[in-house]
Design goal:
The chain has 388 residues and is mostly helical. It contains 16 helices and no strands. It has helices at 7-25, 31-46, 50-77, 81-103, 116-132, 140-148, 161-169, 174-209, 215-246, 264-267, 273-294, 300-319, 323-345, 347-352, 356-378, 380-387. Helix 3 runs parallel beside helix 5 and helix 13 (323-345) packs antiparallel against helix 15. The chain starts with 6 loop residues before the first helix and ends with a helix.
């Protein structure tokens, strides 16, 4: 079974959500039942692949041991940077092994199971925030439920452990829960329209009328693929958030009208928000602070530029090992750097940024720069270069 794709999933979701609705209406804890439902969906999604289930169990065991182990180390020896880096590296290692096994085409994909990337973010976040001193407790049930929570199992959105645990252990008043569940149903319906109507329409558009190499077909692919990517992923995310609401978890939104963005910085504050904010908080900001502490770079714009390139390069490789993903990441690193310099240094920008014509022009340029990025991400740009 594929989550949020198969008809059987939606039929089972209707049936399995009813007890959650009853519990919420009666003002009873939902998390114990939600844990059971999540285990059911893990089995339905991976039960036919015992190797995937075994790797999942191994990952969870390693992740929990590392999170609890680092908490004990942190409480006993304090902020020892070299110890922190060892635990941090170990928490990322399963994902690195998986990516490496894909890159070298091994038959056995190490740690090859649904949701590996998103679980890695969650487990690693706990270690990072333990190092910061903002986490002083790691519960086994909280850890397992957060990682196996079925709505966000395969493709996010990425939640933060403290926020998730707060929702997990609360019991909402009846009115609040029914309002939350109602909004959840609305999101599921809207997400289904996004994914199965609009996303499917754009998919058929670019696959049927955009695969030739003449300019007209390339333009159809250029716009068709970009809109397909948005409606397909935003539709899934809406359904995932909506299903989370039914189980009392207010999973963060993943998209916020990204095509209204007036610049690339704003775009990454609206697009795949849980991922971009995770990288902002745990990669970009820490690289920036580290570079500032070295005092090798006195110019803050230089530091920001280096951090943007590293941050987006890592994000690109996270998407996959093919060259287009790295190029996509570096492309956005360049755009973010240029935008930051333009905002900080340009008198023209400071003079006209609030004027309507400037906002419209900025919107149009940003829109097409974003869609060119999608064009790179799709691999089609690389294919066309090879043909030439």
């Amino acid at each position: 079974m594929s989550l949020f794709v198969d008809q059987s999933f939606f039929l089972s979701l209707i049936a399995l959500s009813l007890p959650a609705l009853i519990l919420g209406y009666l003002e009873k804890p939902i998390a114990p039942y939600g844990s059971l439902v999540s285990l059911i969906y893990v089995y339905l999604a991976m039960g036919k692949k015992p190797g995937a289930l075994a790797f999942l169990a191994l990952f969870l065991a390693i992740g929990y041991a590392l999170d609890r182990g680092y908490l004990a180390v942190r409480m006993r020896w304090g902020r020892k940077t070299w110890l922190y880096r060892i635990f941090l590296f170990a928490s990322i290692l399963p994902l690195g092994l998986y990516k490496f096994s894909l890159a070298v085409n091994w038959q056995l994909h190490l740690f090859g199971f649904l949701g590996l990337s998103y679980m890695t973010f969650k487990s690693t976040q706990i270690i990072i925030q333990t190092y910061d001193g903002s986490i002083d407790r790691v519960s086994l049930w909280d850890f397992l439920y957060m990682n196996l929570f079925f709505p966000v199992l395969t493709s996010g959105p990425i939640d933060r452990s403290q926020r998730f645990s707060g929702d997990m252990h609360r019991v909402l008043p009846r009115e609040d829960y029914m309002d939350l569940a109602g909004r959840g149903l609305q999101k599921i319906l809207l997400g289904a329209i996004y994914k199965f109507a609009l996303g499917a329409a754009f998919y058929h558009l670019y696959t049927n009328f955009g695969m030739k190499t003449d300019p007209k077909h390339i333009l159809v692919y250029f716009y068709g693929y970009g809109f397909y990517l948005f409606f397909d992923f935003a539709g899934y995310s809406l359904m995932a958030v909506g299903a989370s609401y039914l189980f009392g978890i207010e999973t963060p939104e993943n998209f916020k009208a990204p095509f209204r963005s007036l610049d690339i910085i704003e775009f990454w504050d609206r697009w795949h928000i849980s991922l971009s904010h995770w990288f902002r908080d745990f990669v970009f900001s820490r690289i920036s602070m580290g570079l500032m502490k070295t005092k090798k770079f006195k110019n803050r714009l230089t530091v920001a530029g280096i951090a943007f390139f590293i941050n987006m390069g890592i994000m690109g490789v996270w998407h996959g090992t093919s060259p287009q993903y790295l190029i996509y990441g570096l492309y956005h690193g360049l755009l973010l750097t240029l935008t930051e310099v333009f905002h900080k240094k340009s008198k023209f920008y400071k003079k006209h940024r609030k004027e309507k014509w400037f906002k419209f022009l900025s919107w149009g340029i940003t829109f097409h720069l974003v869609f060119f990025g999608f064009f790179i991400f799709s691999g089609r740009f690389m294919d066309l270069i090879k043909l030439k």
